[in-house]
Every structure is written in structure tokens, then in C-alpha cells.
User: What shape does this take?
Amino acid sequence: MRELLSIAYLRGGAASFIVLFHAAGRDDVMGSGPLEAIFALGASRVDMFFVISGFALWLSMTTKDHRPGPFFAQRVLRIAPLYWIVTLLLGGGAMLLPGLFPNLKPTLQDLLLSLAFVPHFSATRPDKIWPIVVQGWALHYEMIFYVVLTLVLFVGRALRLAALAAILVGLAVAGVLFRPTSAVGITLTDPVLLEFLGGALFAAWWAKGGRASRPVAFGLLVAAAAALVVGTVLAQTHVSIRALLLGGPALMLVAATVLLEQGRKWPVLPRLLAVGRASYSIYLLHGFVISVIARIWIKSGLPTGTVPSGLVFVALCTVGSVLVGLVAFRFVEKPLADRLRRPAASGFASGAPPARQEI
Assistant: This one.
């Protein structure tokens, strides 16, 4: 199946908005101005990645004959190598040269749990379920989804979607009933996992020929944009229903763009396509880039706390993060993915979906 440009473009846009949001949140440079609130929409872009992951992987399961073991191995090998490299560089650097990362206080346990994708309360911020690379919190949910998908592969094709829904809904219900307090329990029963299910349900419908007219798709797109704005505002005070407030609009946006592309040839925009394919590298590395630019900015005595200076800072962080992500994708992420996929291919029933469609 051809690559869906709508999905690639959404991934590129989502990664860029996340950078904007985190750059605007640097109080040491931005101050208490209005830009953080303006760029708050970036907070919901991780939800977009979850929906896209559910959509892309379920679409793969409907068109390929995956086997459980190889499928899970490919999923891990897709996201783990770059994450391990970044985690070891940051965690190891902070432990061996604490002066380089004064705000990071990792322990050996912190490092090992981070490398193993095990949710845990951060040694630096005990109130947060964060790995050493803070952005890696989203990978905890990705790994849970991979495990669930692997379990679903043991079920007959006709029952797989029902099994997926039963497991993910069951986990969310368990969270409401039992209110776990451990980091693993909280993450494992987080309703955010339902965002993957939303993407999978849309993929199942779309794979069976589900379509909508162009006016309906446009209407869904407009509704999604409005819902994202409202959901972003409400999610700040209603965190427990994030999956509804942010995941719902994200699903609407994904569905609208895919439906708009169906049967029509979208223009190929090489630069945006490249950003979409490098979105994982951009996501993992943008925190480093923002921190470096912020440190240089402050040491250089550049103005802080104003809207003009804030706009320049955010723009620099976004451009810098995208460029670093593109380089990392070209020279690290993609070569690693290609090398790991190649020797595995002969023993696998089928390959993973193209890296550009993955999260």
C-alpha cells in the first residue's frame, strides 16, 4: 500500500507543534508572557501520535500476516535503538559529569528502568512518571500498545479487534475501579491508551472500504480544529479525561485528513515529508536542542520575557530541533532501522510497516 501523505504531514506538523509548546514553556527565556498559552495546542500533539500509531499498526495487521514474536521484536527494534543511545548519553553524562546537567539527578536504577521502558517515578522529579529522557514517557504507552497487539495476534483474525478493544477498555476500567498508585499501575490503566484503540477502529473501518464525501470530511476537519482548541483549554483542569478532550479531536483530525486524501493525489512536499519521516528523531532530541539554545541565549545576555524575543527564541528552537532531527534520522535512526530490519527479514513472516508510517 502506498504511503499516506496525510499521515506523514500530520506527523511532521505534530512534532513541530510539540517543539513550539516546549520552547514556549521555557520560563527562563520566555518569562510569564502570553506565548505559552498561545502555543498550548502543542500539548495535544502526542495524542496525535498515539492515534496515528493505532491507525498505522492496525492497518498493517489487516494487510500482513504477522507472527507474535517477530512482530514484537520489530516494534522494539524500531523505537529502542535511538532511545537507548539518547538515554545513555544523557543519563550517563549526568551521572559521570553532573556539572553538565545540573538539573538532572539520575540514579543507576533510574537509568536501568528508563532503558527497559518501565514506568517509574523520576529520581529528579519524584512526583512525575518520567524516564531520564522526559519525552520518553510517551514510549511507555507505545510499548504497552505493542504488547497488547502482540497478545492479540494469538487470537483468530475475526476476533482480534474485539480482543484489542476488550483489553484496552478493560485496563481503563481497572484504573477507575482500583485507583493504582504505582507508576506501572497508573500507566498501565491510563485511559490515554484508548487513543490507540481509536486509531485502530478507524483503520479497521477504513480498510473495509469506509469512506466519506468531501464535504463531510471538510466538516470533520473544521470540527476537529475547534475541538482541539476547546479540549486543550479544558484538559489543563480536567487531566483525568485527557483521552476524551485531546484524543477525541486528534482522532477526528486524523480521520478527516485521511478521508480527504482518499481517491485524490495530494502534492508531494519534500521538506514536509522529510520532517514527517524524521518526527521520531525530532521528538526525542528537541529537549536537548531547546536547552542548548536557552543556555546560549541567557549567557549571551539576549532580552528575555518579551513577545518579540520570545517569538525569535521559539523560532530558533523549532528550526534547530527540526534540523537536528533530520540529521539524526538520516545518519542514525534510519541506518539503524535498515540494518536491524535486514537480517531479521528472512526469519519473519512479514516485515514491519514502512518506518515513515510508524511512530
Notes: The CA atoms of residues 128 and 348 lie 38 Å apart. The chain has a mean pLDDT of 90.
